Amino acid sequence: MRSSAPVPSSVEFEVIVSDQGTTRTVAPVGDMDVATVPSARARLNAALADGFENVVFDLSQTTFLDSTGVHLVLEASAQARARGTRLIVLPGPPPIQRVFELCGVADLLTGGRSAQQNGG
Q1: Is residue 116 part of a domain?
Q2: How far apart are alpha carbons 61 and 82 in whole angstroms?
Q3: Domain of 88, in residue numbers
Q4: What residue spans of 1-120 are helical by DSSP H?
Q5: What is the C-alpha separation between 114 and 56, in angstroms, rounded?
Q6: Residue 1's pLDDT is what?
Q7: Which contiguous run of DSSP H or E holds residue 55?
Q8: Residues 27 and 61 sit within 8 Å (Cβ to Cβ)
Q9: Is the residue at 65 inside a domain?
């Protein structure tokens, strides 16, 4: 007989948002997967919609990333281009960077260059 009790997550997840002048930083902390991406998406979308000149998506404290996280970055990049916002995606630890490399979108990890400067 299967138990219907939820399986507790071994890693807590939160999204830290901070503002400095015309820049908003959105930093997911912990595992970013199908269960937690909606929280990160909401905060990232708000940052893009709130009219900030620069939006930084800082993956430095992300401990796991699946394809939903990659999709989130692709969506945000397209939104930023459409709004004329400079999106800066700061790379995470090597395992996080590797996911982007395997998906063929490592160029989204700008490390300080805007998506517009990267041509994309």
Answers
A1: no
A2: 28
A3: 14-108
A4: 37-49, 67-83, 94-102
A5: 9
A6: 44
A7: strand 54-58
A8: yes
A9: yes
- What radius of gyration, in Å, describes the C-alpha atoms of the chain? 15
pTM: 0.82
Return the ∠ at Cα 75 (arms to 69 and 78), rounded to 5°. Answer: 145
Measure the CA–CA gap between 64 and 71, rounded to whole angstroms: 14
| Spans in the chain with pLDDT lower than 70 | 1-11, 111-120
Q: What is the pLDDT of residue 28?
A: 98
**Residue 56 corresponds to which amino acid?**
V
User: Does 119 map to a domain?
Assistant: no
Angle between helices 67-83 and 94-102 (to 10 degrees): 80
Give me the pLDDT at residue 11, please: 59
Structure tokens, 87: 């999106």
CA 87 to chain centre: 10
CATH number at residue 83: 3.30.750.24
* Backbone torsions φ then ψ of 31, nearest 5 degrees: -80, 125
